[in-house]
Amino acid sequence: LKMSWLWLYLPLHLLMATCLCHSIKAPTSSSQQSFKSNLFDFYHSSILADGKETTIHLLKDIPKRYYFVLEEGRALAPFSITVTPCDVPIEWSILVYKPPPGKAAPGDHDTQEVSKSHKASSLVSTIFNYKGNSVETYMGMSSHSALYLLEFLSTERDTHITVYLTSDTTSGHLYPELPGDPRIDVIGIGHTTVTLAWKHSPSVLQHSEGIQYCLLVNEKHNYKSLCAAETAIRSSGMKLPTTVALSLSPYLLEPQQVMILSNSELSIINKVSSGEVRQVCMGTKNTYTVPNLSPNTQYYFDVFIVNLLTNASAAYTGTFARTLEEPEPKVTELKDGKVVHVVLDGKKQKFYSLQYQARHKKIHFTFQLCRGQIRVHITRNGRTVASENLSGLRYFSLKGKLLDIYSVQLRSTEESNSSVKVLASPHFHKPLFPLLPESLKIKSFSKLRTCRSVTIAWLGTQEESKYCVYRKRIEEGEIWRELQSADRCSGPESRHKSEKVLCKYFYDLNLQRAVTTETIKGLEAGTLYLFDVYLFGPSGIPVRYHSKVVKTRKKC
Predict the structure, then answer these.
(1) Pick the CATH number of 175-237+275-327 from 2.60.40.10, 2.30.36.70, 3.30.460.80, 3.40.50.300
(2) Fewer CB in 10 Å around end: N or C, the chain?
């Protein structure tokens, strides 16, 4: 559509429109009536550009109009119009005005006035109208004497759309092509995964370098265009990283890179998508397994074929699937006074359940976190009574009724292995774990360090207990590994005999004075040492203080 000559063409039609407004019969459709009542508004309408995707913003209940004419000198001109709603359903129509026979110049206005009145009703016609939120394309042929008007209306709320008009239907497509069968097939469903497959786009087979597939996953509904998906996420009020500039387009995404818009980062996203929205761009692969989904949850999947050069996209027919229910975890019975050691594989076994039937009204639960990160959830007869992340040694004293059923669910919160010791007993039962001080930290005194010795201190309790000190020489690169991999439930039996320094008993009824110090001698200058203190209670079960790394002085 060559628009440069339009200003020469326009006055002719404006004169025709002026006469038409006085003599046209009542149209049979609302679109024709709207066209008639606004023929004077051409000066206030916009010209629709040819060969370019145009973004149009619509205000609620206020129609917006664009017009175009076809190239002069051609008897018939093919053209196509593609409209993509980016949010709510819209109404849009294409109307055409053809001048009556013999209306060839503005100067003929007076002589044609009478003969035109009985033909005016046939000059304006609606050739296409649509209401909805799907991507629609109209293809047509017309003579050079036709004037076209596109009218767009949103009745729900303010929104925006994209419109692509072209008269060049032979030199390629702005939008990537969809296959004959654009459906997405669900070929596998697991507890936390869904595997999808779809037929290749002809555009991928022809121009694989500039085309790639992008998958959108959410928990609300399918989207009929990438534009609609972007609008829904933007309307949530979230803040995307500046590198993606509020766009889900894959310009800045590498193959297999995932951008996750999570609940914690985007606090308002739940109002729009009822959960998490993910976009994965996987190049030209037409199969993909979506990982890390929640069990027993319905997800909606949309595949878009995206032209990276033009940023235009086409949507496959979306699908949905529900992940399988998580299998019931094995339940272990807890017995009075018996310690259960639970090990969770963060990659395979995320949950572990224990059950305890109360034989007394007061129940005492003890958890000693040995390694990793674990969250505990305790219910009594199906109602939650405690839920928190474990740290060190944790006690829960609960009061209920005889024969109450307590369920304890342990969940690993990281992918590495985690372990914990669990004890359930009546409240008056003699504790197996020792009485703990306010802090399990070991303190070192920098001013008391020498080339051959280190002085450390730790808190005690009001109960006489046994404390054993161990040391281990380590290298600079081993500090993080030693501190992270330490099993806080293991006792001195796991240590080499040469690492033992001493054992001692002490207590103080005044907690402010329940502090002891020890100077460890016979060390090497400029050397790193890892120090551990083990506390033993009446039952002999040890509790390990937090390890302390100290380096002796190089020169004295």
Answers:
(1) 2.60.40.10
(2) C
